[in-house]
C-alpha cells in the first residue's frame, strides 16, 4: 500500500502527490511505458520524491486509477443523483463525467484489478447510474419495460463515443455534448412525435 493511502498528507505533500498524478496522466497518455523518472521530471519533483510517495511504478498506476475513479464518483455526486429531477441529474452527471473522463482518459481506461479501490468505486458508480435511471423511469422518461442494465450500457457507449473526438465536434462544450447524449439515450434517432 502506498503512503498516500496509509494516512492523510500534509498540504504540501498532498500538492506534490496531485502534481505527480497529473503528470503521470499526461506522460502515460503520451507514452504508456514512460519511466518514473520521466513522470517525476514532468511533475517538477525529484525522483526521490516520487519513490517516497510510490514504492514502485505499479503503486503509482494504482494510485492514478483510484484517484481518477474517485474524481469520477465525485462528478456523479455533484450531479445530485438522488435529489435533482432525473432529467436534470442525468444532464449534470453527463456533463461532469465528460469533463472528468476527458481530463483523465488514460487512468480511467486502465483495467482495474477486481480487488482494487478503483474497481469498487466503478461498481458504486454503476449502481448510482442504475438508481438515476430508475428515477428517470419512474418519471416516464424511460419506458417501464426497458432493461436498465442495457440502458446503462448504451449510456456508457454514448459517453465513450463522445469522448473519442470527432473533428466536427471540435469546440463543442460539455453541456452541448451532454444534451446530445441524453437526447439520444431517451429518444434515439427516431422521429419526434
From TrEMBL:
| PANTHER family reported in the protein's UniProt record | HTH-TYPE TRANSCRIPTIONAL REGULATOR BETI, HTH-TYPE TRANSCRIPTIONAL REGULATOR RUTR
According to the entry, every stretch annotated as the HTH tetR-type domain falls at 14-72
- Keywords from the UniProt entry: DNA-binding, Transcription, Transcription regulation
Q: Where's DNA bound on this chain?
A: 35-54
| Protein name as it appears in the record | HTH tetR-type domain-containing protein
Q: Does the keyword Lipid biosynthesis apply?
A: no
Signal peptide start-end = none
Amino acid at each position: 500500500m502506498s503512503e498516500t493511502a496509509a494516512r492523510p498528507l500534509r498540504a504540501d505533500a498532498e500538492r506534490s502527490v496531485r502534481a505527480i498524478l497529473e503528470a503521470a496522466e499526461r506522460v502515460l497518455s503520451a507514452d504508456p511505458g514512460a519511466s518514473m523518472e520521466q513522470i517525476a521530471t514532468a511533475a517538477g519533483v525529484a525522483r526521490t520524491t516520487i519513490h517516497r510517495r510510490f514504492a514502485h511504478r505499479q503503486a503509482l498506476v494504482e494510485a492514478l486509477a483510484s484517484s481518477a475513479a474517485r474524481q469520477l464518483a465525485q462528478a456523479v455526486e455533484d450531479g445530485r443523483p438522488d435529489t435533482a429531477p432525473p432529467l436534470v441529474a442525468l444532464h449534470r452527471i453527463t456533463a461532469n463525467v465528460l469533463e472528468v473522463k476527458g481530463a483523465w482518459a488514460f487512468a480511467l481506461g486502465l483495467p482495474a484489478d477486481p480487488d482494487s479501490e478503483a474497481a469498487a468505486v466503478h461498481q458504486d458508480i454503476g449502481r448510482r447510474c442504475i438508481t438515476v435511471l430508475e428515477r428517470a423511469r419512474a418519471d416516464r422518461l424511460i419506458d417501464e419495460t426497458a432493461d436498465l442494465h442495457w440502458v446503462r450500457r448504451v449510456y456508457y457507449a454514448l459517453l465513450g463515443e463522445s469522448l473519442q473526438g470527432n473533428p466536427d465536434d471540435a469546440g463543442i462544450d460539455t453541456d452541448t455534448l451532454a444534451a446530445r447524449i441524453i437526447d439520444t439515450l431517451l429518444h434515439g434517432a427516431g422521429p419526434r412525435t
